[in-house]
Design goal:
mainly alpha; single chain
Length: about 180
């Protein structure tokens, strides 16, 4: 009789990925709960928070992002995900704080699922929403100066919008 092998957290993560691809968010939560029970780490909390956010369960998502940051204060993904949630909840000051923390964490302990170009672009978007036009231009410019990742056309359009508000019409025209 073969000995039964206990599932490891990595086994649960693989099952979670499959469930998420298939749209089985509740099943993914069950597997993530089991993985966290066996080995709580910040990445598992962040993944469960992302799943809760997709389900529209924002309070649970926020709790998991908070837990991820508590476990690892340098988890750029957890800060970024919490920023996205705060943007969705229109809590822009908290989102800006989280984006800044994500940028700092990413520069010190890079995550392979994030890149600085996207982080600066997201902060640029947030600055645009907060009507910090100069901050938006600076972040979009910084995003465009980065080599990793791909450039979204929105970065040019939104930087042009900020230039227009600042009265820098020639810069805005040059974006198109």
């Amino acid at each position: 009789m073969a000995e039964e092998r206990l599932l490891q957290p990595s086994d649960y993560v693989e099952m979670v990925k499959e469930r998420l691809v298939n749209g089985d968010f509740k099943g993914a939560i069950v597997d993530l709960n089991a993985a966290i029970d066996s080995n709580a780490n910040s990445n598992l909390y962040a993944l469960r928070g992302e799943t809760y956010m997709q389900m529209g369960e924002y309070q649970n998502a926020l709790q998991d992002f908070d837990s991820a940051v508590d476990v690892d204060g340098m988890n750029a993904v957890a800060f970024y995900d919490r920023a996205l949630l705060n943007m969705r909840l229109e809590n822009y000051d908290a989102a800006l704080n989280d984006i800044n923390n994500a940028l700092a964490a990413q520069s010190m302990k890079p995550s392979d699922v994030l890149n600085m170009r996207d982080l600066y672009a997201k902060r640029g978007q947030l600055n645009l929403w907060m009507k910090n036009w100069q901050g938006a231009v600076a972040d979009y410019t910084n995003s465009l100066a980065r080599s990793e990742g791909s450039v979204s056309a929105n970065v040019y359009a939104e930087r042009a919008e900020a230039y227009t508000v600042l009265g820098q019409y020639q810069n805005a025209i040059n974006e198109s």
